[in-house]
Amino acid sequence: MSPATTDPATAVPVPDTPALRIEKLHKGYNGRPIVQDLSFQLRRGECYGLLGPNGAGKTTTLRTLLGLTPFDRGSIELLGLPVPAQARQARMGVGVVPQMDNLDPDFTVAENLLVFGRYFGLSDAQIRDRIPGLLDFAALTAKAQSRISELSGGMKRRLTLARAMINNPDLIVMDEPTTGLDPQARHLIWERLKALLAHGKTILLTTHFMDEAERLCDRLGVIDQGRMIAEGTPRALIDKHVEPQVVEVYGDALRSWLARYQSTLAARIEVSGETAFCYTDDAEPIVRTLRGAAGLRYLHRPANLEDLFLRLTGRDMRDDT
Predict the structure, then answer these.
(1) What is the pLDDT of residues 25-34, one digit of tens each?
(2) What whole-number distance in Å separates Cα of residue 13 and Cα of residue 78?
(3) Residues paired with 195 in a beta bridge
(4) In terms of CB atoms within 10 Å, which of 104, 133, 298, 319 comes out highest?
C-alpha cells in the first residue's frame, strides 16, 4: 500500500490509513532473534496494548517503529509513512512517553515543555500558548516554575505525558507509563489517557499491569520470544483461553487438601508457591470442599487478564534482556 497523502507541515496522513502498520518484522542481536515475524495494526482512535514478559521484545518493537533501531526485515508504516525512510517526518506526529523519565533537571517544569516543543519546529509563541493547557491537563499548573528535583514521581510522570503532547500528536507511544507510581498517581494517569482517547487520540502502550491493560485497551497483542501469540479484545482473549471461574486456595493445609481432592475436581489446577489456582467452569464443587476447612483460605473470582497472561506466557520468572 502506498503511503497516505500528508500535510508537509504536520506529517499527519489522511484518516483512512492505520495509525501504525507492522508486517513480518524481524530484528535480531548477535544472531539471536528478538522480534520474529511480528505483525499488527493500530486503528485510529483506539488504545492498543502490547503485553509480554521481560525480554519478549516489546521495547525493541517500540524503538524500531519509531525509527530509532534498525530492523533486519519486514515493513513498518507509521502514520502512513514508511519507516525508516521517512521516520523523522512520521515522528512529527507522534508523542513518546519513555519507560524512564528523561526530564531536564536544569529547567523548570514550564521550561522543559518550552525546550522540547522547539524540537518539533514550533515557535516559542506557539509553545507558550500551549503550555497552560498542558499543565492543566497534567494537574501541574501550580508547579510551572518548580525545578524537576522538587517534583514527586507521579508529578514527573504526568509532566512526561504532558511533554509528549506538546506537538498535538495523532499517536502516543507509551512504554510502561505508570511503573513505580502509587495507586493515586496511576489512577490520575489513567484518567488523563481516557481523556486523550475521548478526543480521538491513538495510543500504543506496553505495560506489566494487567488491570491497566484491561481498563484502557480496546485491543491487546500478547508477544513472547518476539512472536505474536494472541491478539484481540481483553474480554475475548480471556473467554477464549481461560476458564470463566477461578478459585485461589492457600494456607497451611494446602498440600493435604490437594492430595485429597486434586484428582477428583473438574478443574485445571496450577500450583505457584503456596497458592493453588483452580480454573473451572463450575466453582461450586471446589468451594464446597473449602467451606469451614481448617488451615485453608480461598478466593473465588472471575477469570481476568492476569490469568490469561500467565496461561499464555507461563509463571516462570524472566530475566530482563
Answers:
(1) 999 998 899 9
(2) 10
(3) none
(4) 298
